[in-house]
Amino acid sequence: MSFITDKEKMVDFFAMDKFHFLNYYYYLTEEEYEATKKDVLIRSGHEDAEMLAEDWHIDGVEAGKIVQSIMMTEWLLNKK
Predict the structure, then answer these.
(1) Which of 26, 47, 64, 77 is deepest in the core (most CB within 10 A)?
(2) Is 58 contained in some domain?
(3) What is the pTM of this model?
């Protein structure tokens, strides 16, 4: 289940990498993290969320930070 409506968690979602986020929110599962990431990609208008999510893992940490920054910007602009 996605936690996209939880403002506090979403701020941390964009500020932390996956490892630190899941350690901080120890009660959340990797599946919940991935569901939220997919939800953010879909809501941000990316048509192929599955491929983008896979690319995020394959391309390494720096690519993940770039994608995360883009997603955060889009999410902040669209949440008004």
Answers:
(1) 64
(2) yes
(3) 0.60
